[in-house]
Amino acid sequence: MIRSLYTAATGMTAQQLNMDVIANNLANVNTTGFKRSRADFQDLLYQNTLAAGTAATQGAQVPTGIQVGLGTRAASVERVTTQGDFHQTDNPLDVVIEGEGFFQVQLPDGQIGYTRDGTFKVDSQGRLVTADGNAVVPQITIPPEAAGHVMVSHDGAVSASLPGAATPQQLGQLQLARFVNPNGLESQGRSVFRPTAASGNATTGTAGLKGLGTISSGFLEMSNVKVVEEMVDMISAQRAYEINSKSIQAADEMLQIANNLRR
């Protein structure tokens, strides 16, 4: 009977983690480039009281045996990398990736971070940066006289109409990066990811080539969180948590009955 107490407790712990993941998804429903997460679970070890195939009588075997499970645990929290909806902003420095790929930014420690958030701005030095001031890699500098006249093509070429120039002048090229296993990236917060041994090394290239997505200017990729789906998952997690708590309550009542037995 004590075993059922601990088994149900693992179920409550698992659903608590599930609720934490759902809450984070809902909190980021309006976060640009955010990818929702999903908690995956697996069953724990089984106690084998009677192994299947054990000889029962002469010439006969036990067909199924007796196995009692010991609960569940979290196996992983997987990031769902489906494309989010696009929101039109008409700001030429707002860019979106249609398909696979990440923008590259230089983090304060000098390392390269990767993001789907294309909310770019210009700093005091004219560099193209993120909202946190991290410079885009490779570095692109926009002269002051080009303000308001910047264009970004589908392959990531950044150009601008400069005074005295008959044709737009190219200022730089946005490069995209992709990974063999994007789910293996480590989230650093602020919509930035770092590579890990599980994600593999980044493969960089021009947008639209080698499996990389294309770039569109004047749009932003919104979160891929579906509020209705998250609410349904929340109700399911809440009910599963409640059912496990009922199991603990029932096991406690059965122990109480056993403890109250008298001769």
Largest sheet: 5 strands, antiparallel
- Helix fraction, binned, reads 10-25%
Total strands = 20
Shape: elongated
Order of helices and strands: HEEEEEEEEEEEEEEEEEEEEH
Content-based structural category: alpha+beta
Number of structurally distinct domains:
2
Instruction: Give the termini distance in whole angstroms.
Output: 21 Å
Radius of gyration: 27 Å
Mean pLDDT: 91
Regarding quaternary structure, how should these chains be classified?
Answer: single chain
Share of β-strand residues: 25-35%
Number of helical stretches of at least 4 residues: 2
Low-confidence stretches: none
Can you walk through the features of this model?
- The protein is an alpha+beta fold.
- It folds into two domains: 2-81 and 225-259, no CATH class; 86-221, no CATH class.
- It has helices at residues 2-27, 227-259; strands at 37-43, 46-50, 66-69, 72-79, 86-88, 95-98, 102-106, 112-115, 121-122, 128-129, 136-137, 150-152, 157-160, 169-173, 175-178, 186-189, 192-194, 203-206, 214-217, 219-221.
- Strands 7, 8, 11, 15 and 18 form a five-stranded antiparallel β-sheet that branches. The protein has a three-stranded antiparallel β-sheet with strand order 12-13-14, with no helix packed on it. A two-stranded antiparallel ribbon has the order 1-4.
- Helix 1 runs antiparallel to helix 2.
- The chain is elongated, with a radius of gyration of 27 Å.
